[in-house]
Input
Amino acid sequence: MSDTFVIALFREALTTVLIVAAPMLGVGLIVGLTISVLQATTQIHEQTLTFIPKILAVLLSMIFFGPWMLHTLISFFEKILGNLDQFTFIR
Output
């Protein structure tokens, strides 16, 4: 295994993790910004008003995007297992 191979593998793993986490993070960000704007306009600063909608939105996004996320992770795992012979030091 060369250095460039390890770096490319790490880059692909990191990219896969970011792509899989992006829908949940995006939904949480949008819901958080919406709640923050509503809190700023109504001057209600209750802490539970922020967390409960975000938790529910992230849970719903996990349910909605779950099959796609699972498919993406399984395809990455199959790619890793398919190239397992390249990860050994025996030549």
User: Anything to note?
Assistant: The chain has one domain: 3-87.
